[in-house]
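Box S2. Input/output pair 1.
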Amino acid sequence: MIVCIAEKPSVARDIARVIGATTQKNGYMEGNGYQVTWTFGHLCTLKEPHDYTEQWKRWSLSSLPMIPPRFGIKLIDDDGIKRQFAVIEQLMQQADGIINCGDAGQEGELIQRWVMQKAQAKCPVRRLWISSMTDEAIREGFAHLEDQHQRDSLYMAGLSRAIGDWILGMNATRLYTLKYGRERQVLSIGRVQTPTLALIVNRQKEIENFVPQPYWVLATIYRDTLFTAVLPDEEKDEGTADDKAGKKEKADKNAHPKGFLTKEEGEEAFKLIEGKPFTVTGVQKKNGTEAPPFLYDLTSLQVDCNRKYGFSAETTLNLIQSLYEKKLTTYPRVDTQYLPDDVYPKCPAVMNGLFQTSTNGQRPYAELVKTLGGRALRKSKKVFNTSKVTDHHAIIPTEIVARGLTDMEQKVYDLVARRFIAAFYPDCKFSTTTVTGKVDSIQFKATGKEILDPGWRVVYARQTSDSSDGDDTDNKEENTLPTFTKGESGEHRPTLTEKQTNPPAWYTEATLLRAMETAGKFVDDESLRDALKENGIGRPSSRAGIIETLFKRNYIRRDRKRLVATQTGVELIDIIKEELLKSCELTGIWEKKLRDIEKHAYDPRQFIDELKEQINQIVIQVLSDNSNRTVAVTTNEDTKKKKKKKT
């Protein structure tokens, strides 16, 4: 008998139906030579400190650092889990073979391997590796089962991550709680949550310490068109967008803004141009194209859902996971926005499913799909690029017709569906017009953009943005200019407007997710910045949980869409002097090493040994602090009071 083990009962039922295991048993289904059982996500976890020695049961500074000679696993203490594991254990002890049907990712690999180890399974194990839960995908996956050893490096990366989290989290949390906690408050420290909290706290301090600086903008209105003065600094401003972003991050936020006028300069320039004619010195038209937006990975989907609908990252993850389990979208916990070439032949079937999809008596995608009919679908390198896909591809709909969705599920599905359809539409064509002018020695400029052919933008033509933040698929009103002729001249109305510099924007969940993904911009070292471009802080599948952990610990709170650090959060970051615990650099390097373990390019033992040495140094440093500082306690009631004051 072959035992198949899935990660959830709903997934197990789908697999069992497809492979013919239709007889319901206690904790599994049986038939056609298969027994299909399931876990409930994690059934096992790493042992806790007191499981290794009684001395570690009591929290004590003298027992730190805690490093077990060999890490072990145990069942999670839950009656339902224990009952289900007993079923799994009995099936595996008698099995001729096992098929690991866990989610096809690092966490899924770890969950199932731990269960098989705990059940002491001895028979051969094969791996089902699929990106969607459609019947066709399941059948195809069973026709191409892998030897489990092909995924050993994935398991080792997941195991290294779990052990690393244990070493850092267990030791640092006890260390900081005992040293700086007040009134028995637990100060939770984590390899991703602490650097993420540091991003929020540092941004908040920038905002609170920001001193607005006045500046003046010189402009003039000629033929009902606003022309803005071009300053020498703007003309010489060169460099890439990343270069400018990096300089902006490091610049003194309270300095007078470069490229803007002081009051005296503005008044002098105003006098110079007042009463003198405006002359058009150049009219330049340039045609351009705008490609469709990239397909969704998990982070970009979470960002859009937060901007458009105010969904938290965790809510979006739960919704897209639900759509995946309903077989309507592909595997969600992905960090690529590309499809492999072998998905291209399946795309017409997906389009057909979208064509038939009906919502509230309407078929929202029928006309959009119909426009693409009658010819081969466009195949762009921005969409299909096998070299940029590892275990899973971008999130796309499946060929299954969507039915019975909740309002929130429908919103997420609609984003994924439209992004997929837009990927096969032609580029948007536009014309950019730049008109330059001159009054005396002062140069002016106005720009406008005209859509010549909307291309992929028609997919979003009837949508309006639900948020002022918007995104790259919102149709914003374009600024078109009247026709100007070089050399024409006439009267104008100059203006000199006083403005003030603005502080950095507060983090929202959308912008925090992007900051976690692109943490390299906070790093000075060029080689580390390159490493962080690929990895960032955390993984797409874990970032939502990290943000929720910060809420649960009362380290941050929501103020509408803003993420605000509490007094506890601020003081915790202030008290941590060890950059390892709050640094984007080292957290990103950790992620890179785990990726390298997956690729057989880094030794897991070296990874763990380095962490042991690092935590030992952290303990020594903290214990040598004689300042007697403590961290304030923020309770759930405190957070609720803040919310009431705002409303």
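Box S3. Input/output pair 2.
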Amino acid sequence: MANNLVIVESPSKAKSIGKYLGKNYTVVASMGHIRDLPKSKIGVDIEHDFKPEYITIRGKGDIVSALKKAAKKAKKVFLATDPDREGEAISWHLAYLLNIDENAKCRISFNEVTKSAVVASIKEARAIDKSLVDAQQARRVLDRIVGYKISPLLWSNVRSGLSAGRVQSVATRLVVDREAEIEAFVPEEYWIITAHLTDQNGKNPFEARFYGMDGKKQDIRGSEAAKEVLKRIEGAQYTVQRVTYGERVKNPAPPFTTSTLQQEASRKMGFTAKRTMSTAQSLYEGVSVPGKGVTGLITYMRTDSLRVAAEAQQAAVELIGARYGKEYLPRNPRVYKTSKAAQDAHEAIRPTEVEILPEDIRSSVSTDEYRLYKLIWERFVSSQMASAVYDTLSADINANGVTFRATESAVRFAGYRAVYIEGSDENERKDVKKLVKLEEKMPLKLVKLTDEQKFTEAPPRYTEASLIKAMEENGIGRPSTYAPTISTILGRDYVSREKKMLYPTELGKVVTDLMKAHFPDIVDINFTANMEQQLDDIENGSEDYLELMRTFYAPFKATLDIAEKEIGKVEIKDEESDEICEKCGKRMVVKMGRYGKFLACPGYPECSNAKPLFVDTGVPCPKCGARIVAKKSKRGKKYFGCEKAPACDFVLWDEPNKEPCEKCGAVTVTKYGKYGRKVICTNEECEANKKQPEK
């Protein structure tokens, strides 16, 4: 009797599931999408109810043939693609190509790649969810219409190769608008005066900051105001006016959603959103675990839900009690409330088996996989733990009618902090080990006064983490779109990234201004968020796909017709570089080509000099003293070499550190392996690289 056939997207997922289902099942991979809209044309028949014109993706013909052959021999075919809109659409396309009735119970899905979840899904096989498919199709068709109708206008009036999109254009606008806020910001001067105090015996030192004068809270604006405060407290006696000791309880952060995982991986580990999702995908699909073989380590990583299965919560409770003690358990199990906008189709991101500790897998996975699993494991376990408890102090200190305020906190009970501290918490004022003892009317001794001139700061530029947070808060995109959206706006050169900060390019500003003027709805945050909600409504069956398309297209077409007549040619000023053209002496400019940025002479066509754009690492070449710059090989791999190449052949595959070797002064690089971060000297003969004998 022929085997049952199970089709998934990737080979690693196929390997994991094949191990769980046994010899009566053959598991194969479709290698992602197999049908899509054509790239050569819009591929949507607008005149006939926006019918998509799907084709088999180029290069997938052999895969489709193999799948058809396997399906023909199989007793039954199960479609086990990812449990979301995109996965449902892939199953729908597979059903079409393999002549499977979409109403047949052929669709299986699971939130985690574990034996219990996979086996249970076979028993709970269902028909393909057409509402999910319609929601994915609506998004795909909307994005295709917007992209293929607006992009040609950008090509002809701004620059070839540009694109517009429902989500990417709004994300770009957020970065552009933030830069405009920064440029318009006018800093205001203020001063911080701090009293460094002790008791009368010179013990128990603490700090108190200026709070106000004559019983009123106020800020110190300007140097004259600061001088006035300092003059008033000159020679004054410092006395405790009011003191309050209290308690503060801080609850743990909830388990991760896609958005918070991407934010925290960026803050704590410097991961891009793309790197986070790629690593999470491999953890979800399955990695090799000692004693278990290939195992899915985390639940599905595209989710905006905070829900946790009761069994997983109980497993966490048992682990916390055994590993940390019962005092680290809350009185009642923690339940986190998911936002109304969340789809809640899946659980929060958590370990599939909390008993698999991060250290258990360290030797068998990549460094990225280990670090991300550790982050997810610690966040989930801490989310089920008792709150942290702090002892707090707030005291007002009087000095001739000037009030200084001291605030301190000391950890009484670590609670969840024994396992995990959220990234933003690390920027808070440090806790003291023990609160200072103060009493009302207690005289104090002034050790010194410090006064600092400060200026109010403009809003910070977005990082990937904060942009994702802003997109989520404004309802722009969904968990599956955050990472690809950021990759797109960076790849299109609308936004550049420097030391984590996102800057709009001149091109990004020009395109955004053009979109605001001619397609205001497409770059309107509320319009985009409302569209996302309508797509969710299609998914849950409360809105019709065709009705949404008709409602959207009529006003869009009218706007498009006007824009085609009104948009004029836009000139973008080239960014000047520090490089001087060696042929004609002009300052070279940065241009964007098919393969990225390059340097070109502005004297073209009289001078056609052009060369690659190298990014300076700030490290001198040890062979000739010129700059070590970042380069790309013919295959696109990043490496680092002397700018004087080929005359100088110094080259590195790892980015050089600015700090030279302490022992020999040679260039050092940082490598990450299974055992963490290690600084290595590039001088192979250096003593720093030699293994030290055990004592």
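Caption for Box S3: The chain has a mean pLDDT of 91. The longest helix spans residues 130-157.
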